[in-house]
Amino acid sequence: MLQELRIRNYAIIDELDIRFDGGLTIITGETGAGKSILMGALSLILGQRADSSVILNREKKTVVEGVFAVPDKQEVRKFLEDEELDLQEELIIRRELSPNGKSRAFINDTPASLTQLQDLSSLLVDLHRQFDTLSLGSADFQMMVVDAMANNQELIHQYQQKYQHWQSCKKQLAAIEEQKLNSTKEQDYLQFLFNELEEAAFRDNELEELEEESKLLNSSEGIKLALSNLTQQLKYSEQPVVQSIKQLAQQVAPFTDAIAELKDLQARLTATQIELDDIAEEADRLGDKVSYDAERISQIEERLNLGYKLLKKHGFQETKQLVALHEELSGRLGNIEELDDKIRLLQQQVATAEQEMKNLGVRISEGRKKQVPVIEKQVNQLLVRVGMPNARLKLQMDTVEPGTTGMDAIDFLFDANKSNQFASIRKVASGGELSRLMLCIKSLIAKKVNLPTMIFDEIDTGISGEASMQVGMIMKELAATRQVICITHQPQIAGKADRHLFVYKEKAGKTIQTNIRVLSQAERITAIAQMIGGDKPSAIAIENAKELIANA
After folding, report:
1. At what angle do helices 139-150 and 431-445 cross, to 10 degrees?
2. Do 228 and 313 share a domain, yes or no?
3. How far does the signal peptide extend, from start to end residue (predicted)?
């Protein structure tokens, strides 16, 4: 509930504090007194765009502050918690405009964005002005009205969860199918590369080892000849080297006692003879192992040629790179095959999610269909009360593809003259008709949902007499369970007030300023009588005013 509105330095308002109570508060005053200025100031804390031209004194900033009581407003508490804003029993929203054009907003003294202000204010205040009826033609608003009457809120919450899950599954499926499509385009090429490497079947370091073996085989004859010559010269020639060194050692042996150094020399010759004999034996053994194998050389060359070709094709240097590519291609091809399994699984999930969502959608649609004739009947009865006896509202409901609000499209159709030529509200209804129609609809759904503080700004234009009386009665009914504030020129509506505020202009020095005050019972009678009969109301007008107040 709006408890207080504080306005500083706004338009022709220097400083103004307005306190509000529950029930029905009526605001009246002469044309031009500043009633619309109050609504403009209120709009600032509701998140509307700021215009620095409203600043009265360019030396100071403009400040508009609203104080709200929200003890039982769970939606407001949740919003504050979600946005990490201070949670208090009293909620203060402040908007500041600087002469340089900058605008700042605060929620409980914490800086807030304009979006936060708009979201929060929508939970606190429903401001309805004359001609401010675009929402009535909105598909979202019309759907909200039907769902409120059908008590569909919980079902819609469940449906939206299913709808989001369905959309998520569809998105995943589309991504996998696109991946599959792109993979299929390259699958044949990947398979070709894989088959090529699979058939080659190289192992790590194979080409490097074959290169070494090839060098050995291609040099085998020369190696064998060299080893044979070595063995021959050392042991089997006419003057074998080993035998010659042995003889030299024997020739030195008799003289080792005469010269001590000869003993060491003999030992070295003997060691050399033994080492050369061992070399000859090793060369002989190696020579037996080495042999020229033309068939093996051909096999190796063929294998190496295949390996060199694949290395060059893929820009590699080593056999292990070919082996790693083979493993990589195997994995990629396996993943492509797994995509088919993933697609089948996601298709099942999409189908299941869609069916679950549609089951809820059908239940929602059934509830809506039941309420269509109820809404038509009750709104049309209210239209008679507000002075539109020939007007008719008709709801058109069509089945559409699933969306965020279900599987239905709702359109409010209107006929102002019993012509049976219904058309969409936004195309045929006038501003005054829309205002009264909106009042009828809001009074209807107010019984079903917890609407916030409702503020009506001169929506009674174009009506009088009994129609005004009925509009006042409807507002009075609304005010039984919520705060309703109404700016009006109609005495029949003003007479229904629980609290009557009067807006007036007064001279302050050299300036004219707007002010407001609460009217006493006697002042109310005078004010309403003046609304009936002018500045100097007759006794009859005064009696009529008393009667209007008495019948409230």
Report:
1. 30
2. yes
3. none
Q: Give the confidence band of 130 by pLDDT, cuts at 50, 70, 90.
A: very low
Together in a domain, 107 and 231: no
Would 481 be classed as within a structural domain?
yes
Q: Is the pLDDT score of 129 beyond 70?
A: no
| pLDDT score of 54 more than 90 | no
pLDDT in tens, 56-79: 888 899 999 999 988 667 788 888
Q: How many residues does the chain have?
A: 552
Query: What single-letter amino acid sits at 436?
Result: R
Question: Do 272 and 243 touch, CB atoms closer than 8 A?
Answer: no
In 386-464, which ranges are continuous DSSP H helix? 425-428, 431-445
Task: Provide the pLDDT confidence category of residue 237 given band limits of 50, 70 and 90.
Answer: confident
Q: What share of the chain is helix, strand, coil (3-state, %, to 5)?
A: 60, 20, 25
Angle between helix 431-445 and helix 319-385 axes, rounded to 10 deg: 100
Is residue 359 a part of any domain in this protein? no
pLDDT for 430 equals 65
Q: Are 11 and 123 in the same domain?
A: yes
Query: Under 8 Å CB-to-CB from 300, ≥6 apart: which residues?
Result: 210, 213, 214, 217
Q: How far does Cα 198 stand from its chain's mean position?
A: 47
The separation between CA 471 and the C-alpha centre of its own chain, rounded to angstroms, equals: 42
Look at the chain and report how many structural domains it folds into.
2
**CB within 8 Å of 166: residues ≥ 6 apart:** 350, 353, 354, 356, 357, 402
> Taking the CA atoms of the chain, what radius of gyration do you get in angstroms?
50
Q: What is the mean pLDDT of the chain?
A: 85
Give the Å distances, CA to CA, from 493 to 105, 294, 433, 452: 35, 118, 17, 21
Q: Is residue 426 part of a domain?
A: no
pTM summary value:
0.65
Q: Which domain holds residue 82?
A: 1-130+458-519
| Cβ within 8 Å of residue 349, ≥6 positions away | 169, 173
The whole-number average pLDDT for the span 33-46 is 84
Q: Is 242 part of any domain?
A: yes
The answer to whether residues 119 and 212 belong to one domain is: no
Q: Where are the alpha helices (DSSP H) in 114-152?
A: 114-124, 139-150
